[in-house]
Write a structure and sequence with these properties.
OB fold (Dihydrolipoamide Acetyltransferase, E2P); 3 domains; elongated
Length: 254
């Protein structure tokens, strides 16, 4: 005790130093969270393209792997019969218009011609609308990843005939183990590391976390060392086109 009393100034300074060290450790060391690593695959956003009517397909104009531009014609239904009907009705319209201009035609005949003329015009408008719907046009630039039907097949309304992959619209489907699932939420910032180029990273943000665990794909299970996990979807900003569709990546959450 005598020793402590003689050196109480020293011990006071030591206590203060210890307190400062603990505070600094908490701020710069202890507060840092463990990195969470997840493995997943790079996906591209895709849209399906379909006809709006149930008719035989006349033409499928692009193949799998073709790059198409917005507005390109991709497919046509067999509307030959309706096209011929429209052409015939347009001839009748010309005839009825000529009757209305002919002063030698009886008034009653002109009334009948006028009535039929209006009916034909309405019918043509409707059929031309159908003819426009009998075409598939690319809504955006992209690559045809799947062609699901062929000429001669019967198209079904809203049934996909093409899948179109949208460039520069990538996302990552990763899987978090149960141990880390509670550390992830919508909006969590992440870093995506390409397996083939670990020195290159892409920033992203979580936008979906599954609430139900599922069996992992075999290759992801081998990398992560677990057999089940929660699906996590990550939006990425890949302006430099670093990530390749289908490639394996690691998603790191800090």
């Amino acid at each position: 005790m005598e020793f402590i009393r003689r050196h109480k100034k020293f011990w006071a300074l030591a206590a203060i130093a210890t307190t400062v060290i603990m505070i600094l450790f908490t701020i710069f060391g202890g507060a840092e969270e463990e990195e969470v690593g997840m493995y997943g695959k790079v996906e591209t956003k895709r849209v399906y393209l379909s006809f709006n009517m149930e008719l035989p397909i006349k033409e499928m104009l692009v193949q799998e792997g073709d790059f198409v531009h917005r507005g390109d014609l991709l497919g046509i239904l067999d509307m030959d019969a309706m096209t011929k009907q429209v052409a015939a009705e347009k001839i009748l319209i010309n005839n009825y218009e000529a009757e209305l201009k002919d002063n030698t035609v009886d008034k009653n005949e002109k009334k009948l011609a006028y009535s039929r003329l209006n009916g034909l015009r309405a019918d043509i408008l409707l059929k031309e609308k159908f003819l426009r719907q009998a075409r598939i046009v690319a809504p955006v630039d992209g690559t045809i990843s799947q062609r699901l039907q062929e000429p001669g097949d019967v198209a079904v309304a809203m049934k996909p005939v093409y899948y179109l992959e949208m460039p520069n619209s990538k996302w990552v489907r990763a899987f978090a183990s149960e141990a880390y699932a509670n550390k992830i939420s919508k909006g969590t910032p992440v870093t995506v590391v390409a397996e083939v180029m670990p020195e290159t990273t892409v920033e992203g943000k979580v936008y979906y976390v599954s609430t139900v665990a599922e069996a992992l794909p075999e290759d992801i299970a081998k990398l992560s060392g677990v057999q089940s996990g929660y699906e996590v979807r990550v939006a990425v900003k890949d302006k430099e086109n670093v990530l390749k569709a289908g490639s394996t990546v690691e998603v790191v959450i800090k």
